[in-house]
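Example record used in the benchmark description.
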Amino acid sequence: MLFLFVLVKRRNKKTIHLREIERALLPLKHDEVRGVVIPDGIGGLLEIDRLVLTEHGLLIIESYPISGHLFGSEQIDQWTQILEGRSFKFANPIRHIHNAKYALQILAPKLPVHCRIVFTADSDFPKGRPEVVSTLSSLEQDLKPILQTPKIPASSKLGWQRVLRIARTNGQAVLREATS
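Model output (structure tokens):
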């Protein structure tokens, strides 16, 4: 019974975090795909948590459920998490999101690509937060500069269709070609 309670509580936290991200994306989002895999441009594949089409281009959202005091910058390979007096290392998430950005720029060169890494658990950055990083509490404010960028022309949305034709999710095409 305790296991079931813990499982339900954990699932509710994830749902709350997803709702907070959804609320922050609401003024921007026109379309979205989740858990999408795209070619990385050098023979491999990249997975993207959320890829959002906005009036201002594409927005990559990568979320990490990491809590505690976090220390990292764009230039270092390993970031540090301090939790309950213990230190843990994890790979720099900025590298992954920048690789995804470059891959999308190859697939849709006329679309601007914006990036945001969101730490969804109770976390803070005592020494400063890198530019493309948000916490749930800062996400809505951090997305506002995207609204200041120029809107994309309707013809640029063809790039979104190209990304959807090439992208895969769970081994399946995101967008199926019409057969006629």
